[in-house]
Each structure stands twice: as C-alpha cells, then as structure tokens.
Amino acid sequence: MLMSVETIFLNAPDFPRQADVRIVLRFGARFAAHASEWDRELDGALSRSCALPACTCASGEIVDILLPPPPPNQVRERRAVVLNLGNPAEMTALSLMQAGAKLARFLESVKESRVTLLHDWKETCAVARHELSGRLLLGLQLGNYRFALMGKQDKAHAIEIFVSGEEWDVDSASRFTSLAEGVCLARDLVNYPASHLHPDNFADYLAPLAAAGVAIEELQEEQLKQLGMGALLAVGGGSARKPRLLLLRYCGKNAPEQPLALVGKGICFDAGGLCIKTTRQMFPMRGDMAGAAAVAGTLLALARQQANVHVVGILAIAENLPSATSYKPGDIIESASGRTIEVYDTDCEGRMVLCDALHYAATRCNPSAIIDLATLTYSVMQGLGPVFAGLFASDDKLAQTLLAAGERTGERFWRLPLDSAYDEGLRSPVADLRQHAKTDDGDAPYAAAFLKHFAESVPWAHLDIAGKELLEEDAPLARAGASGFGVLLLEEWLNGQ
C-alpha cells in the first residue's frame, strides 16, 4: 500500500522552521486561540481572506493564503492553509475524516509536503476533542492512499506533518493511524487483479497481520474434505487453484475468553461458473473477495492498536470458474453442517462458501456473535442504490449497534427483513435446502434466509456489501478503485463492545 503520511508530535507549539505550510484550523466562523494570535501577527491576513464572499464556513472548506516575506532575521512558512472543520455543534466523525481527505488532496495539488498544524480548540464539540484530532489524521491518510500497482506517475504524495497543542491525543491518533493501515490493506487486496491475488497465494498477502501478532492458519483441500466442506469445495472445484479456509485470531491482553467471529466471502474471481456472467458483469469481479478483505483489514487495525478485544476471522477463499470439473445446476451438495443443498445457479457461489464458513465459526469457535460480510447479491444494489448496504440480523441488539456504528463512520446500512416466510422459497423436494429461491425477485432476503440456517442459532448479522467494494469515480474518502468498505464499521463496532 502507498499511504505516505508521517506524523511527528511536538511537545510544544514551536514549529520546525523548515516547514513550508502552516495548517490553521477554523471552526465555522471562528478561529482557535493560536490562530487568532497568528492572525494578529499577520495584520489580519487570515481573517480578511476568510471574510471574502466566496467563503461559506462549511466543513472541508480550504482557504489558501500565500504569505508575504517575513521581517528581516525572521523565518516563517510561505503559505497558510485555513481548513474549516465546520460548526463545532454539528461536527461528526465522518465530516472530520472528509475534511482531512480534502486537505490531503489539496496539499498534493499544490505540491506541498512539509506542513505544521496546531490543535488548541478547547470548547465543546459534537465530537470528543481527542477524537477530533485522530479522525482528521485518519481522513488525511485515507485521502492520500495510492495503490502500488497503479501507473508509475501516480504515486502517493509524501506528507510530513508536524502537530502540536495540548488537545492532541497521541493515543487517539495512534488508534486512527492503525485504522488507516487496516482500511488501506483492504483496499490493496481488492485492487489486486486475479492474476496477482488468488487462492494459492492469498495467505501471503496477510503478512502484515502476522507481523502485528495475528495468528494465521490455512486449511487446504485435504483438510476441507476432512471437515466435510462440500459447498466450499464445490465452488472452487472448477479452478486449478483449489479453495482454502483461512483462520485468523487476535486476542488482546485482557480480552474476553469468548471471541466475536467475523466471516468474509473471499471469491478471488467470479466468472459465474457454468452459469457464466457477461463481460460487463465479470470485469469488476476481482472485487468479489471484498468481504474477506474487510475482515483482514479489521484484524490488522485491531492488532496494531493492541485493542482489548478477542476476534476470530474466517475467510472462505476460492475462484468460481467454468471448467469440466465445475459444479452444475441440479447438483446436490452436502455441506459441512450435514445439510444437503440443491444447486440452482452456480453464480450464487457466495452463499455456498459462506455456509461452510459460518458453520465452522458457530460450531468450532464458540463465538458470542457472528458477523459475515459478502458482496452477495445484485438485488441489494438495486433495492438500496449507492447510499446504503444491506443488513440482516437474527438479533435486534446486534443489528442496532451495527447500524449505529455505520452512521458514525459513514458506512451506512439499512436493515432488511429476515422473516421465516422466506424459508418457504428454499424448500426442495430432493435436498434440505434450495440454494436459490423459486423466484428471481428479492434474492437478497432469500440469500440471508439460506445463510441463517448455518449460523446455528448464534446471534448473527449478515452484511450484504455488494456494490460498495469498488468506486467508479473519486469519493470523499477514496479515489476510484477499492474503497476498503467495512473496516471502519467493524473497527468502530468491535472497539465499542
């Protein structure tokens, strides 16, 4: 990953003389004490520039001021950049991150790399003051992300930022720097094409997790057979690269003995199998492992933070390709749970690999709750559009806390029905379950109803993140390409448990 932001914390408000830019924080129509004092030294240059008619005082607004030469025998920055964080009473974690990302892009556009920033706002905010600094730095780091395999001219802009002021919280900043690493790892994994990332080497890309203290175990084909994982094996059977189940575990020092389980769909490339996709449908399918990427990124963030949580991650890794050995419509597959599944559509492979992974989590990890993430259905994209991802849950408290975490981080979900009436559409005359309902309408709730059986009565939430994994154009926190969606939500939720 390329995310070239180095943050240096200073113990005093004395900034290094060789810095070229000073970032001045503005809160709506007001400066903090230090900025007001500096404005007086500059004969009101800051306040005059911010009083121009074009200035709106909106969050994320940037005012660029080229400073006159300093008096003789004095040294100061050549540029002042006023970054508005908006009305303190209306500030949110998301607005702070977006302001930080805008700052990163602005610094890149003016080719400035060495900057200073003082945070000395002491009044009440809608966001805790210590979190204010961390969220701002998180946005700066996410906005500066580049994928290493992009064109040689598109490199991450190096930013060296010196920060000071008693309102900076080093621990909070460290938490959010670790979170940025997790999001950027998830972005990298989704950005890698299937020529580079596949079942044979997926575990190799998780080296940062191992270095951070996450235990990693890889179950290969023979072990999957011993566990009876017929659904995962069936999906991966059409590829020369056989499926894997990757087991990740992180446990903080004083964490509970009982873990929380995260399950991720990891289809490294989805051609649809024998029910093959069109070219347009197939082209973005390198991102069909975004659920697994989000789980991996979350575990990295937690381990880097040394968070006081106990989490297991289970990644179902496979390729869904057409060949003479692919599974077929009409096949009856026995899953690890012993339930038999009648295959209707080989392009419904996500629920197949997840059912074995969910059963493993529920029966072998003793979790207090399970959350799975998957780019699962087109219907959730059609139903919710670009604003929300879909959430299904067997437990109301679990659903409510996830929805709240999504609102705080900007990774928003809408709860969809998990009703027993959907089970009727999954009845089969020849197997315990149909893989796909008898109708094409409402596939997302039918898929959730199918997966519910394999959570084995453990409190469970299913996050259908289809359409959120890849951005066709730049967004406030990410450039076109992989978004890293899900990591912000999961880290927020897990640290709140």
From TrEMBL:
It holds the Pfam family Peptidase_M17_N. Transmembrane segments: none annotated. Gene3D superfamilies: Leucine Aminopeptidase, subunit E, domain 1, Zn peptidases. InterPro entries: Leucine_aapep/pepB, Macro_dom-like, Peptidase_M17_C, Peptidase_M17_N. GO terms for cellular component: cytoplasm. Residues 185-490 form the Cytosol aminopeptidase domain. One of its GO terms (biological process) is proteolysis. The keyword Manganese applies. CDD domains: Peptidase_M17. Keywords: Aminopeptidase, Hydrolase, Manganese, Protease. Residues 32-148 form the Peptidase M17 leucyl aminopeptidase N-terminal domain. Signal peptide: none annotated. This is Peptidase M17. It comes from Ventosimonas gracilis. The lineage of its organism: Bacteria, Pseudomonadati, Pseudomonadota, Gammaproteobacteria, Pseudomonadales.
